[in-house]
Every structure is written in C-alpha cells, then in structure tokens.
Design goal:
single chain; mainly alpha; two-stranded parallel ribbon; 6 helices
Length: 118
C-alpha cells in the first residue's frame, strides 16, 4: 500500500474525530486499518493539505500521544497553536497534557465503518 493511500486513510479517520474530543496516534492508525503504525499517523499529519481532504478540513490538533500529551515541544509555535485550538473546543490542556479519559473519542465501530466507506 502506498504512503498516499495510507495517508488518505489516516486523514479520513482524523476528519471523524468530533469537536471537543481527542484521539491517540495509535487509535487513529488502528481505525485506519494500520495497526501498530502510530508513528506513521503522526508523520502523515505533518503533510495534511492546506485545503483539507475531499473539501473538508483535517483537525490534526485533535490527535495526541496515548498519554494525553501534545507531541510538540512545550512553548513551541506548533504546541501553542495546538493547545489554543483544543482549548477553543473546550478541551482543557494543563501543562503539556489533557485527560484522555475525559476527552477521549470512543467511536462506535459500526458508525466508523459506515462513515469511512462514504
């Protein structure tokens, strides 16, 4: 499977994460049918097209480490942008982390399969 196809699968999953919710890189990779490819999920989010995918934005900022930590260096421009975007959606970020337990996305598998097919 080419990287372009893998990236598109990951981007489509990220588009499904609801506002005010977060997911881990591993969860995104699993839902995209790429188990064990959390690093690939993180890498491909760095290549999201500026105009989104299929006319819809890809909310890259909703994807975090499985610990709930933002992956960017504390205080960096990208860290601050991600933190601000999450806070705007009501996801509280303290220091470098948020609560996966509180804000974690728990999709219904049937719904995910239906949405990914469309």
């Amino acid at each position: 499977m080419s990287n372009n196809l893998q990236y598109e699968k990951i981007w489509k999953v990220v588009q499904l994460i609801p506002q005010g919710k977060v997911a881990s890189y591993g969860q995104v990779a699993d839902l995209a049918g790429l188990p064990g490819r959390a690093r690939l999920a993180g890498k491909c989010l760095g290549y999201v097209p500026k105009d989104g995918v299929n006319g819809k934005p890809v909310p890259w900022f909703r994807v975090l480490r499985s610990s709930g930590q933002l992956a960017f260096p504390l205080g960096s421009e990208t860290f601050e942008r991600q933190r601000a975007l999450l806070m705007d959606e009501g996801v509280f970020v303290k220091g470098k982390s948020t609560s996966i337990k509180k804000y974690g996305w728990k999709p219904d598998l049937g719904e995910i399969l239906f949405l990914l097919e469309n």
